[in-house]
Amino acid sequence: MKKHVFYFRKFEKAQILPIVAIGMVAIIGLAAILLDGGVLMANRRAAQAAADAGALAGARLSCLDQSASDIEAEALKYAVDLNNADPSTTASYDSSTGLVTVVAEKEQDSWFARIFGEDTLSAGASASAGCYSPSAGQRVLPIAFWYKSAPKKASVIDCKTEGSCSLVNWDFTTLMNELSSTSAANLPLDDIYIVAESTKVCEKTSGGIVCAGLSANASGGNRSWIDLSTVGDTSNLQKIIKYGLDKPIYLPAWISAGSGKVTSFFKADNFEGLDPIPGYEGMEARLVIVPVYDMYCDEGSTCQPQDDPVYDLGSIHYYLKNNNKSAYRLVGFAPFVLTCVTKNHKAEFGISMQGGKCPGYYYAEQSQQDIGKDAIEGYFVDGLPVDMFFWGTEGVDAGLQVISLSD
């Protein structure tokens, strides 16, 4: 039998070394991808988080009408100091668009990539944010105000003809400092609003407090109640006021007018359970939100509703004509500092005077103004960026703003 003999030649030794060398290069490259690539992705996420935080912080100051330098400084503070972006991060504010833009950088030493000449790993991200009037909301009172119904010369308060009217006449911080440092008997009654059997706008004059109806409400009654039954359970107003509607109101939208006075609205329970105003927890005042409207359709009217959502059954034209319903076109939300609630001529909740009277109600009575036995009173304010319960960017500016990233 022929035997096969295998010979191992000496020159074939160490042939594995080139393979090991090539494999080590591949392993190091893979490690660089895994470790340094992971660091790069983490830096990218950190840069984006810093850019978002800075843009939102700057937009908040733009809501408060701060200077461009203060807005940019606040944006950098949140991006660099509080979210660890690199000092090369930049922030800019464009007053023409209202946008705050932050370009954040994040750099870190590499691990294996330096073998290939990459000593550092840099990542960048940008974000822009603005201050907008909200276009949707879920926490509102069942009343609506003409969005220009200001107490400006109360005896001639028709804001359809007075173009300079503005619903809001108080900066929030200025008003709260005034309320907290002044006795009830000397509260500022200029530009106070009193909502009673009929909606009134009041202001203090040398002869006492003067109240006038809002002729922009049309129909003569000057009542501003709105029917929220299609978006919430109105059998429990306290629930709506405290927790919001079952469905949001998207603006602009038509809401049917409510009839008469809603007696249960003037209960102290509706408001005293609300959270105190931050920074003024010891004060008996509450911040609530009031819808505002820019068009009113009286019963049987032919006004054009435009292409807006209709919170009614069927076409608003049909509904108005065949159901004898009037309606408001809601276009925005206004923050209202409620200072006192009157029930049966007595203050049930809020900042009251000796004798148990709400200040505005008391002086209206003294001035022989007929506002009924039940009322709430307070002031429309601005300078409030509020994100909870409100969102969107298309509403009318009525003193309430939301902060939103734009890209």
Question: How would you describe the overall organization of this protein?
Answer:
- This protein is 24% helix and 27% strand.
- The longest helix is centred in the first third of the chain and has 47 residues, at 17-63.
- It folds into two domains: 10-131, no CATH class; 136-405, no CATH class.
- Helix 1 packs antiparallel against helix 2 (68-81).
- The termini are far apart.
- With 407 residues, the protein is α+β, with helices and mostly antiparallel strands.
- The strands form three sheets. Strands 5, 6, 7, 8, 9, 11, 12, 13, 14 and 15 form a ten-stranded mixed sheet that branches.
Q: What's the short version?
A:
The chain is built from seven helices and 18 strands. With 407 residues, it is α+β, with helices and mostly antiparallel strands. A hairpin with a 3-residue loop joins β7 (193-195) and β8.
Radius of gyration: 32 Å
The run of helices and strands is: HHEEEEEEHEEEHEEHEHEEHEEEE
Strand element count: 18
Q: Please give the domain count.
A: 2
Question: Span from first to last CA?
Answer: 84 Å
Q: What's the helical proportion of residues? A: 10-25%
